[in-house]
Amino acid sequence: MAKGPGICFVCLLSLTTLISSPVLQAQTNDNPAVLPLMPQLQQLIEQQRYQQALQLAQQHLDQAEGDPDFDFYYGLSAAQSGLFHEALFVFERLSNHYPDVVRYRLELARCYYFLSQLDNAEREFRLVLSSQPPASVRTTIDAFLDRIAEQRLTYRSHWNTSLSYGAGYDSNINSSTDLNEIDILLAGAERKVRLNKDQTASGSGFYKLNASTLYRRPVSKRSGFDLHLSGQRKANARNDDYDLNAIYADGGMQLIRGRHQWRLGAAYQHYWLDDKTLQLTPALNLSWKYLTRADLQFSSKLEIREQDNKLNDDLDATQAEINSGFEYASAVFAGQAGIMLASDSAPNSPLAKNSLGINLSGQYLLSQHASAYALGQWRQMMFQHSDHDNVLVNGKKRRETLLQAVLGASRQLTNELSLYGQLTYMTNQSNIDIYQYDRNLIECGLTLVF
């Protein structure tokens, strides 16, 4: 790769604050083959005579390679000469041997960037940020991260695909109460009614298949098109009545202007229950993100959906939902927090509702190949009308609170294959007994990414 304006940009990193900072460099080995070379290499690099420094280093590789100071000057001169593949090998080795030396990791990130390995570059830059480097270095890294965000839209079209297979146990496949009998109002008198087995909680083992693909196509430097397709099948061992299949599609146009990112999209969901169509939901959405700094952004999304339920007309509704929150990402932790408001427009439907919710999620990097994650969701649902035709609700207007928590971990086995396991707990509290339930799921499986 030839030298160009980008190389001048990163000279801020290579030749200023960090070059003389002892806390960011490894100790020099007392290698007799290396000591006479160091003043020469340092002088050539300070004079920006990178190719001469590279030639000198290459002549002494057999004797000096492996010394951290020599390797640093060798890798730096290769990078500044545009030989980023050669420099990458050097700085990967240095970062592995000296993981706490920020300077090595910074040069590694720079190599990844110029080799168009944007995900790896972003990861390494964020690791450097987490070490609280000087303000001038943070400013330069922020500029790199801004460029990475822009360049993700400027490269050629590409696909990302994942497949997963999991199995586990679901304590309540039909999301039903564990009560055996409830009180209902008949002819003005309250009576107890025993529920049949289809109206109470039923547990079962299950297997689950997931497939997901993301396609990105640039239109210009600051705009692009994306398409997300996914599908899922959850099959229960006990019976087929509550087997659930789903497909999801979401496509849209993105536009970046400074720190603002806009996206206008359309989505479609299709659910099958026991291989029979359950629900169709087309939607339109508009989202906005604002990057306040390299590790923090605010976001908001408005979506209008048309829900068509094939088994219960009372669930047909036009739905409006807005989500707002923030996203944070550092080298070892990424988290999201947000609130949601939703409302159904379905005149006279006893199942139309207004909803308020809170969403929380986080992922923590335990090691280079392992991570743990957690998700939390709280929903307050207030139904708009009383259901006088349903004797089970006694003419009440429903109010429900749903709480869901997920804890999980994943371990990367190869570059493409990982193992995961997770626990899920759900509880739905209602002012009407029959709609109260608890649900527990345990699941583990494999995910393939390519």
From TrEMBL:
Residues 159-325 form the Surface lipoprotein assembly modifier C-terminal domain. Gene3D superfamilies: Tetratricopeptide repeat domain. It comes from the Bacteria. Residues 1-26 form the signal peptide. Pfam families: SlipAM. Keywords: Lipoprotein, Signal. SUPFAM superfamilies: Porins (SSF56935), TPR-like (SSF48452). This is Surface lipoprotein assembly modifier. It comes from Bacterioplanoides pacificum.
